[in-house]
Amino acid sequence: MKILVSGGCGYIGAHTLVDLIDNGFEVLSVDDNSRSKANMLNGVAKITGKQVQNYAINLCDWTKTAQIFAEHSDIKGIIHFAAYKSVPESVKKPLLYYQNNLNALLNILKAVKQFGIPYFVFSSSCSVYGNASTLPVTEQTPLQAAESPYAQTKQMGEQIIQNFAKTHHSKHILLRYFNPVGAHASAHIGEVQEKPENLVPYITQTAIGKRTSLSVFGNDYPTRDGSCIRDYIHVMDVAHAHTKALQYLIKQAQTQVCEIFNLGTGNGVSVLEAIHAFETVSQQSLNYHIGPRRPGDVVAVYADNTKAKTVLGWQPQRSLNEMMASAWKWELAMQKKAKQIICD
């Protein structure tokens, strides 16, 4: 079965391509590489032995988007990752985020309708919960006000899909990720952030010397050590959930036209605890300091993942230490590759 993965050159998208291929799916990627690296697909090829075809177009262009589906009439499913995802940038440039994230989604759904695509999986986020009043959050937890325009595009995207699903025969799943981290065990693919905004790339870049220090955004939150609490989950566990979601849809096991699943470990880990976990597995001492709070950050959020476990048969496999070890291995691999390029 052929699956189109939008944002396939991105962090989660590339790892999902690997998992889909490992489970017998044929895949295509569409990614304009404005926020990703095209050579990520070379890493996918090293792991899987398959070179994935990528269409370097912006999904906000309907004509070019439609051409892909016209060329591949056998596409049966879409996994939609492609979106801008920086919380701080979205606070500074809200219109950019509404225009890109929502228009790309609208065009993809237009393709679902026009070309009769039966299965659709959407990359959502735990940011849709806002500052939840109770933890852990379940899929039924009422959504609070979005803390950033990025989070609001995910809330709006979910609502658009739910409304669309009521009027169309296709089946839809919304996957609410918590905090994907780490890299493939081979270190052929991982997270690339030249200017890191997520915690773990910031940690690894500080440890390897790309950054002089690490900022912890606030230590005065009402948490056990004053730093924000998140649910960190290995990116390959997140990737495998997409395969499980597609298999669930293909089996026609879905009882609703649109279902929601949390993808997290169920464990809340503070920023400072994550830093200490990295220091333990890497044997590196991090130069970090406490800075001011960052606009758009929620205090704490972690998942109740019972539904994904029981309905999809999905189970996160990797520990926090494994997440940090794989992220460090990837950072070291990137450094080695950069030195080889300089020498060549």
Could you characterize what this model shows?
The protein is built from eleven helices and 13 strands. With 344 residues, it is an alpha/beta fold. The protein has two domains: 2-182 and 233-263, NAD(P)-binding Rossmann-like Domain (Rossmann fold, 3-Layer(aba) Sandwich), CATH 3.40.50; 199-227 and 267-302 and 318-343, UDP-galactose 4-epimerase, domain 1 (Alpha-Beta Complex).
Describe the structure using short key phrases.
single chain; alpha/beta; Rossmann fold; UDP-galactose 4-epimerase, domain 1; 2 domains; globular
Could you give a quick summary of the protein structure above?
This protein is an alpha/beta fold. It folds into 2 domains: 2-182 and 233-263, NAD(P)-binding Rossmann-like Domain (Rossmann fold, 3-Layer(aba) Sandwich); 199-227 and 267-302 and 318-343, UDP-galactose 4-epimerase, domain 1 (Alpha-Beta Complex). The protein is built from 11 helices and 13 strands.
